[in-house]
Amino acid sequence: MLDIITKNFNELTTQELYNILQLRSEVFVVEQDCVYQDIDGKDQKARHVLGYKNDVLVAYTRIFKPGYYFDESSIGRVVVQQNARKFKYGYAIMEASIEAIKMHYNETTIRISAQMYLKQFYNNLDFKAVGEAYLEDGIPHINMIKS
Length: 147
Prior knowledge:
The protein is an alpha+beta fold. It has helices at 14-31, 89-105, 119-123; strands spanning 3-8, 47-53, 56-64, 73-80, 110-115, 128-136, 139-146. It contains 3 helices and 7 strands; from the N terminus they run E-H-E-E-E-H-E-H-E-E.
């Protein structure tokens, strides 16, 4: 079971922000061998969903209200520490993110830009692919919507 908290950017402590950036870099830059600009100026507009196990950040997303990232509300930077994936924390952090969007933004329609290899994972959470696949930072992605 994950301990999950959500915070706006200005509520994050310096240590929490450091842990978020460290986890995102560990997975998106190092593990996926992808050089890209993670610090994109959007964190300040996001609400951050942090998943802890034994006081260690092991899962994370950021959520946006409609109009900030897509026309719909959205979830991005979905990440689970590599050695914690076997515990299905991806589902826990996504379910918490979906609930946070309902609670904070009163929205149920959510759009994501999903890495193609995770399409089935998102299908299991009732997201449906829309449109064609595309490359983002050299990695195949697809837009998906849950309504």
